[in-house]
Structure formats: structure tokens, C-alpha cells
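[Automated response] Your request has been received and processed.

Submitted sequence:
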Amino acid sequence: MVKIDLSWAEVDGLISLLSNEIYLSDKNFSGIYGVSDGGKIISILLHKRLDIPLLNQPQNRSLLVDEAVDSGKRLKKLQDEHLSTVVGGLIYTAALIESKKSQFSPDFTGRLVGYQDWIVFPWDYDIHAVENINNLI
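Generated structure:
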């Protein structure tokens, strides 16, 4: 397993790549909806880059965003659940990170990582604190 600690600068670079991919798709998004805490962070960063409104819940032609897609089951399940309640039935997906082992590939991805890679985002302070506790004492 390879542990990848992403810095805020690396996240910013990935947001640039992801927002460029989304922009070039020429899709007319109704808004962005972030799932989980990390997905909300990514959705806010994309909102600031692309000027697409933030949503309280997905709607037709919205972009469902998560920080990472590991197996892909969660994002696919959420997409399917929201599609069943959305008139028009079109919800796009995006993730900052996608694992090669994912069974579901988002419409937009910032970075593809290896099968066993473990990503630590800069907002995962509790993980960093536990790992670095000996350096603090």
C-alpha cells in the first residue's frame, strides 16, 4: 500500500485539472452537490472556479461530487438514488481522486491512483494527528 499525503497545493492543482475537464465538456450544469464532508469541500472549490451554483440536493443536470472513488459503489448508489427522485433523470458525477480498482468511473476525475493507494487529504487532520502524535510530545 502506498500512502499519498496530498497538500493543499496539490489539491489546488487537481481542482484546476478537474474544473478544466468539466468546463471543456460544455455541459450545462444546473448546480453542484457535494456528498460527504470531503465532497462538499471539493464542490465548493469547483463552484468558485466554475461559477456553478451549489445545491442543497441534486436536481436534473447537476454534478454529484465526492473527494474520492475507491470501489465506486457509494457514488454509483447515490447517483442511482438521486436519479430516481429527479425529474429528467440526468446527474453527472465527479471525483478528485479515482482508484484503478473502482467498478464505477465518474464522468470527471482529477487523478487516477493505484489499486492499493491510500489518500490522505489535507482536511483529514484526525489522521495526521494520530500518525504524528510522537512528534508533538
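Summary generated for your ticket: The longest strand covers residues 91-99. The two ends are 28 Å apart (CA to CA).
If you did not submit this request, please reply to this message.
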